[in-house]
Known about the structure:
By secondary structure, this protein is an alpha/beta fold. The protein is built from 8 helices and 6 strands, in the order E-H-H-E-H-E-H-H-E-H-E-H-H-E. It has one domain: SGNH hydrolase (Rossmann fold, 3-Layer(aba) Sandwich). Strands 5-4-3-1-2-6 form a 6-stranded mixed sheet, with helices on both faces. Helix 5 runs parallel beside helix 6. The longest helix has 24 residues.
Amino acid sequence: MTIRSTPRPWSRYVAIGDSITEGLHEVSATTGEHLGWADRLAVALGDVAAAEGRSFDYANLAVRGRLIRDITGPQTDAAIALKPDLVTIWAGGNDCLRPGIDGDDLTRRYEGAVRRLRASGADVLLVTAYNAAQTPGLSWTASRSGVLTANLWSIASAHGCYVCDVWGFGALRDPRLWAYDRIHLTPQGHARLASRAWEALGFPVDPNYARPLPALEPESTLERAKETAGWVKFFLLPWVGRRVTGRSSGDGRSGKRTTPRPVDDLRSEFGGHPLVA
């Protein structure tokens, strides 16, 4: 099989994954719920369906803090039960942050979930890992993420999946598109990623979405040190504390949109078109 590149008339989209797909650091002004790139992609897909006179439903089962074993296990089970014709998977970021990961085991789990989803009749869009080589405090994860990304391309080719290439998305490496924790995207980052996924599904896209932001003025050593000190205090230390005590930011949480439904409630959230033009 080969990697897919042509869109289809999808009618039910289910997103699975961790906090990136759940959506953080972008909040609805009306409901207070978190929004993200998958919500933006769903609105764009819903608009296509509406223009073609088709129904369209969307569910998001992603939960912050989840590992590949959770996403390829219970989340995949739940996704299949919803009978989607399109599923997006972004997983592995939390695994790459942990010591002593078994890359072969992660790949087997990932491929097993893809095999099951494809056997159910769903198309699958895999989202590759992010290259954090230039991100202070997280650059050490790049080698792990790179191996995972290479394996995802192989899985996609073997099972006829679509691929959203985040690893090679240079414009997304701008720190202004990432929140203070250096892990989650800002609303503008979500919009750019949604455009990347839209393109990966085979839809025409304005190339402006991939253009870098205007260059930043270089930061002084002191400014960089202050930013890193704040990151250590407000993100890294709490994260370490959760690991030591066996807790997760997703404890007690379930997916924010576990029942597929139309995207009418999301259309007004993004001030017009959900993608970057």
